[in-house]
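[Meeting: bench + compute handoff]

Bench side (C.D.) handed over the final construct sequence. Compute side (W.E.) agreed to return the predicted structure before the next meeting so the bench team could plan truncations. Sequence as handed over:
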Amino acid sequence: MTMFGKLMNGYFYGKSGKGDFTPDDLPKNRWELFWAMLRVRFSALTRLNMMTIIVFLPYLVIILMNFLSLLTGWTNAVNYQEALTAGTELDPEQFTPELVALFEKFTENGVFQIQNFVRDLTQACLWRMVLLLIPAILITGPAEAGLAYVCRNWARDEHAFIWSDFKDAMRDNWKQAIGISAITSVIPIIMYMCWQFYGNLAADSMFYMIPQMVVVMLGIIWILALVFYYPLMVSYKMTFRQLLKNGMMLSIGRLPQTVGVRLLTLLPVLICLLLLFFTGIGMYAFLAIGAFYLIIGIALPRFIYASFTNAVFDRFINSRIEGVRINRGMTEDNDDDEDEDESDGEDDKEDDIRKKPTDDEA
């Protein structure tokens, strides 16, 4: 095949292995498949991101605004304490009468109790954030299902229309998607309230640190299980109880890998926070992270989740369901022409793997 032919095949939107591809051109493992599909679908991921960002915008704005409020309050408190210690005059542009009156409530005998102020400010911002996040997260469920379906197909080198397949996946899975997003929306406020409640009790007895840690661990496990919930619901026919059970089991069974995938998708945010606290370009980092999420920061993590969950499903679910092909998009799918011919009749039937596995199978 000529170089031009391979280049054109990079933009081919059909089934992998067709067109001018030969088996040697196909990815030989998951790693190669991920990078090949990311390269081919990158521009489509940006379009998918810009199409869905409106749904996730309230969620992102709430987190950003509360974080900025917290950061501004910390900075003003430090500057106020330094001004009191040095005995310098306060800048009226920075320290308004309302702000000074607030700081004076935390001042005793001329000493500003900055620890108490920071504690109360942090609690107020966190409470406001987790409260506002309830409706902001709730509305994202159907969009998450649409993203999971499109990214699942792209991650295994199968075609998906950006709008029509996204819309169909939302329509077909909106009930379960709303159920998952409803639970997810109250997880932050439950974790916060339990952390505060058991934390206050732990001041008198260390025993209450045990339920405090249990609540935190359960919340973390749910967050990890979200990697599987939406791909599961768009790939298999199962009840909501089965969905919850299987997503939780897969997240625990593949715990190190799931944690690694979650941390990988949070890497841009972690870099932004490091630049904010340890360099002088923190605000530029905020602008960069904002541009990242507007352009591809929503779709790219879902594509990474899809690549990961496709491999997990092939190993633990698809290999147990008769007639379902595994390792789609890789060389193994095309090793035997006879096997491919025999499976062609089942591809359309099982393309979305719409078979209901039992609890034992999944």
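W.E. noted at the follow-up: The first helix runs from residue 3 to 9. C.D. will use this when planning the next construct.
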